[in-house]
TrEMBL record:
The gene is menH_3. Pfam families: Abhydrolase_6. It comes from Methylobacterium isbiliense. This is 2-succinyl-6-hydroxy-2, 4-cyclohexadiene-1-carboxylate synthase. It comes from the Bacteria. Residues 41-291 form the AB hydrolase-1 domain. InterPro entries: AB_hydrolase_1, AB_hydrolase_fold, AB_hydrolase_sf, Epox_hydrolase-like. SUPFAM superfamilies: alpha/beta-Hydrolases.
Amino acid sequence: MQHEASPLAEGRTWTRETVDLPGGRVAALAFGPADRPVDALMLHANGFNARAYRTLIEPLGREYRIVAYDQRGHGASTLPAEPRGRRSWTDVASDLIAVLDRLDGPPLTLVGHSMGGTAALLAAARRPDRVRNLVLLDPVILSRAYALGARIPLLARLYRRHSPLAQGALRRRASFPSREAALAAYRGRGAFRTWPEAPLADYVADGFRARPDGTVELACTGEWEASNYLAQGHDSWGALRRLARPAVILRAERGSTCGLTESRPPGIAVETLPGTTHFLPFEAPERVRAAIRAALAARP
């Protein structure tokens, strides 16, 4: 993992780092003591970025070393993000495994929100030797029937034609005169209506890239965001059956993307957080942080 030249510029409590993978670099934020092995990796949701979770992770950095990274097609990461022909989240799970293999130290806690939670689940099922336990924040675990249909080519094509989320991503405004203009446009509206100011500002800070003309554009294109909604050919239920590590799942009370409720494999605890939506890391940060801290403190 490579460090930036001025790690604590502007009084920050985190550093920017990169991990070289085949085909490009993963951009990351590291919290906590630099002389400590990494304790946990944090994976963001579709369309988001690592910095959006800064206020959630920062207090944990007083005790633990936590790395949050921009997944393929997001933030400042440079891995290829070609949406055409994409059918599953195997690529983002493989990226996570590659990152795990490049980090020294003992097995890690994986924390993931939405798509990030599912990527953590898929990776942990494949490489339990590099994973200690998991905290999954409203992971995308579709109903068994939908998940099966998504792996059948004819039904998968039908799903792709009728995905409101994907269509919304493709219609999303891609550029603004400035980050300030983007922040003003998002504040209190649509998917961001329940977000506090700090994580929203952090999301905008790393969620846009500067253009030569001085305007800014989304780092995660609408096409890539849509491809994540459509590429559901991975087997989350199979990963759950194979999972050999303890996991805590925190579900949203309203609009949850997690179809796992009372019927669950051994070793997986599921809790629904009252009053929350899919954006529960920003709506109930203290409860989420407590779950992460408990996983970090658990004995191997």
